[in-house]
Amino acid sequence: MAVFLPPEIRLNVAQRLSRRRLQALCFASRDWRSTAQILLFRVIRVILPRRTVAGFIAFLRSSPHFRAYVHKLFIYDNASDKPPSISVKELFKALKLLPALRCLKFDSIALTGSSKVAKANLPSLPNFHLACSRSDVETSAFNALLTHLRVAELHLSFLLLRPSASNNSAPLFCSEMFQSLRILNVGQVVTPRQAQSEWRTSEILAACPDSLTSLGVGYDINRYRHGRALHEFLQEKGSHIESLNIDYGRWGEIEPEAEEMRLMMDDVGRDGFGGMPSKWPKMKLSTCCPSLKHITFVLFVAYESLDDMKKSSAIFLWRYALRLLASAPKTLCSITVLFMMDGDVPFEDLDRSTIDTVDWRRWDKVLKGLGELERLTFAPLGLEAYGKGDFEVPSRQERTSAWCEEASEFVLKRLRSLHDRDVEFRFA
């Protein structure tokens, strides 16, 4: 006699199986097949140009029993020199057939089409998560995506926005596009120019509501306008932000002029955090973001000769991050520092890396004032995480090396205020 298992127990068992074993499970029984298919079709990948969106739509129409299983849809191209084109109208047809869809990600595609879409063709997908990277998108298509989908979580990595052929004068962004937004991560969103691309971070932030609870921004800190735009946004609309992620990791290069060289050698600076360029904006996070609980920085660790270490512009980023931390509300409960590494730093040469140059005594003093701190994490990022130079909410690509062990002992020894506190400390 067959043993009956409740659906939730079967699902719990199936979640522990590999995809290959799930496929085999489909042949066990009708009940197990249904359970396995829920997991097999939860994430669907459409790889262009091997498959087409039209072909995917035909598959969904011929297999209606699978539609309710799909929670995430990935559309990407991993072979073509020129990104394959998809119309936003065709994309909406596919989305309308997926009632349980909560996440759409596309990578290395060209999205085209008008922002005018018939109401009958619009999907109803609440609390939607949209992620776009390395793609070429017409402004009207981008407008349609964000206006007609109720996007609550938006991740924009490298995105090239092109003027629409039908309406070249239409504004790039409007408040209606972001009205449902609660989580935003924005990096290199640009429009083409004759000489060089123009970043659009400032315009995106200006169009966002004051209801964001999480914000991630990646930009060149030396582009003063972008730092000012972030500062202005946090001052005007940052009261609900609980999580702030700032990526300076790839853009800390300073021209080695006399003034910058003097600042690098200055361990004190104007406000006690060490020398740094005066044009970098000061922010008081406790005033701008009184709800802030989690903060993440992406910085850089250089590896130089002993004579050149103080000349590395990476130290500016560490000083600037500490100055921001010192201004954070006392209710901050987690700090994460993710950092790019300048090659493989051998553990025996720790004193030739930025880690040795950081003023850990001053870091300890700032951390001591954060009475509700629960976690402090330092994690190196593998170079593959940023191979394209695109910002995303960083996934940790951790390295295991003797250097990390040595650096962990080195840093923890200097953060004495943590020794008698119940704070989870992690390095690598």
How would the blueprint of this fold be written?
Elements: H1 7-14, H2 19-25, H3 30-40, E1 43-48, H4 53-62, E2 72-77, E3 85-87, H5 88-96, E4 103-107, E5 110-112, E6 128-133, E7 135-138, H6 139-148, E8 151-156, E9 159-162, E10 183-186, E11 189-191, E12 198-199, H7 201-207, E13 214-218, H8 224-237, E14 243-247, H9 258-265, H10 285-288, E15 294-301, H11 314-326, E16 334-341, H12 354-357, H13 360-368, E17 375-381, H14 402-414, E18 424-427
Parallel strand pairs: 1-2, 2-4, 3-5, 4-6, 5-7, 6-8, 7-9, 8-10, 9-11, 10-13, 13-14, 14-15, 15-16, 16-17, 17-18
Antiparallel strand pairs: 11-12
Give the CA-based shape.
Answer: globular
What gyration radius follows from the Cα positions, in whole Å? 24 Å
Number of helices: 14
- Largest sheet entry: 12 strands, parallel
N- to C-terminal distance: 52 Å
Give the count of structural domains: 3
Classify the secondary structure makeup into a structural class. alpha/beta
Estimate the strand proportion: 15-25%
CATH topology of the largest domain: Leucine-rich repeat, LRR (right-handed beta-alpha superhelix)
Low-confidence stretches: 383-400
* Number of DSSP strand runs: 18
How would you write the strand order of the largest sheet?
Answer: 1-2-4-6-8-10-13-14-15-16-17-18
Integer average pLDDT: 80
Helical residue percent band: 25-40%
At the first level of CATH, the class of the largest domain is Alpha Beta
CATH architecture of the largest domain, by name, is Alpha-Beta Horseshoe
Protein name: F-box domain-containing protein
